[in-house]
Design a protein that fits this description.
By secondary structure, the protein is α/β, with parallel strands linked by helices. It folds into three domains: about 5-50 and about 175-230, no CATH class; about 65-170 and about 235-285, Rossmann fold (3-Layer(aba) Sandwich), CATH 3.40.50; about 290-360, Beta-grasp domain (Ubiquitin-like (UB roll), Roll). It has helices at about 5-15, 25-50, 75-85, 130-140, 155-165, 200-205, 225-230, 250-260, 275-285, 315-320, 325-330, and strands spanning about 65-70, 100-105, 110-115, 140-150, 165-170, 175-180, 185-190, 215, 235-245, 265, 290-295, 305-310, 330-335, 345, 355-360. The strands form three sheets. Strands 1, 2, 3, 4, 5, 9 and 10 form a seven-stranded mixed beta sheet that branches. Strands 12-11-15-13-14 form a five-stranded mixed beta sheet. The protein has a three-stranded mixed beta sheet with strand order 6-8-7, with helices on one face. A hairpin with a 2-residue loop joins strand 2 and strand 3. The longest helix has 25 residues, at about 25-50. The protein starts with a helix and ends with a strand.
């Protein structure tokens, strides 16, 4: 075990032994910040060294979904069933040794699926090619946690491994702004009452050698969320739980799984059970919207909308349509619910709504 990992273990032991109360909260906050900083050091050193075969996957389509699960849970079978891709299927661990892509065309959207090697406990530390797999997951728009109906509690292990790797599941980035300055110490302002006290916030910032900064907090956050903001290297990814092999399970077992994960989808990749529901759930969870393009001086194309994810702005649409659009952009006009009035002139940061009509004006 390396010296940094030993330090992490010692700090984790100290946190476990320390009773949490108001008097110890800032001390625990500092310890958590120290662990996060040390883990970040390990990650940076590993990235600098390289090592192992990396996975280079080009994102394509309207959204990218990565299948995440333990080895031999049925990811390859599901990918083949949903997309027709050719991912090797076998009833033994680590069948998939590289990333296998597939494409689902559904409700007008083109969705890229990625089948990655199965994650195991310790993946965030590099076990079982975990670093390479996690790098793919980090860049996905969505994760499907595929669970074996006979081992549903694997979800907790998977989620914890991704959390340790800096991936936040079904969370939004905390509404916190930290602006460093040259002098004046730490100035903290908040728009709501906070559970964190100033001493804890300053202790966390001090751990990262931030001694002069203005901090604006607009939601009630935990110390872990504050650390995430300071590190500024977290990925926020939506997810769906799919429980596989239901064709082999007794009804009572399925009901127990449903109580554990009430929002999950129950499928059989092998038998094709509920695959249609699975596809619909993926589409809905990705939050697609339709944008109709209207060339300047012409009618809008209402037959074939551009499919993008909710929250997409005009700059991102420019990047997708043509590599020169952003550079040559003058203004855009929008008709629809995101516009204050029909044909409103807007800029690159304007976010589109479902069924908006868009005209992009560029320099000649």
């Amino acid at each position: 075990m390396s010296s940094i990992q030993e330090q992490i273990q010692e700090i984790e032991d100290e946190i476990r032994k320390t009773q949490y109360n108001k008097a110890t909260s800032h001390h625990i906050g500092r310890l958590k910040a120290k662990i996060a900083r040390l883990r970040d050091e390990v990650e940076k050193k590993a990235s600098a060294k390289g090592g192992g075969e990396g996975y280079s996957v080009r994102k394509s389509g309207d959204g990218t979904v990565t299948l995440v699960g333990f080895p031999s849970v049925g990811k390859s079978t599901l990918l083949n069933k949903v997309t027709g891709a050719n991912s090797e299927v076998g009833a033994y661990e680590f069948t998939t040794l590289t990333v296998v892509p597939g494409v689902l065309e559904h409700k007008g959207a083109t969705i890229q699926f990625l089948d990655v090697p199965g994650l195991v406990k310790g993946a965030s530390s590099g076990r079982g090619r975990g670093k390479e797999v996690i790098s793919v997951i980090r860049n996905s728009d969505m994760i499907v946690f595929l669970l074996d109906v006979f081992q549903p509690k694997h979800y907790e292990v998977l989620r914890d491994e991704l959390y340790q790797a800096g991936i936040r599941i079904d969370e939004e980035p905390p509404d916190v702004i930290i602006r460093k300055k040259e002098r004046g110490g730490i100035e903290i302002n908040s728009t709501i009452e906070l559970d964190l006290d100033e001493e804890t916030i300053k202790a966390v910032l001090d751990e990262y050698k931030i001694h002069n900064a203005s901090v604006l907090i607009r939601e009630n956050i935990t110390v872990d969320q504050l650390i995430d903001v300071v590190l500024d290297n977290r990925s926020y990814v939506r997810s769906l739980i799919a429980i596989n092999k239901v064709d082999l399970a007794y009804p009572q077992l399925i009901e127990e799984c449903r109580e554990l994960y009430p929002n999950s989808i129950f499928i059989s990749a092998h038998e094709g059970i509920n695959i249609g529901i699975f596809k619909d759930s993926i589409y809905d969870k990705l939050g697609f919207i339709r944008v109709y393009l209207k060339p300047q001086g012409q009618s809008a194309d209402m037959e074939e909308p551009l499919i993008v994810m909710n929250g997409t702005n005009i700059g991102q649409i420019c990047d997708r349509l043509h590599r020169d659009f952003r550079r040559k952009f003058r203004y855009a006009q929008v008709w629809g619910t995101s516009a204050k009035h029909p044909g409103q002139r807007v800029g690159l940061d304007h976010k589109m709504h479902d069924e908006d009509i868009l005209t992009i004006i560029t320099q000649k």
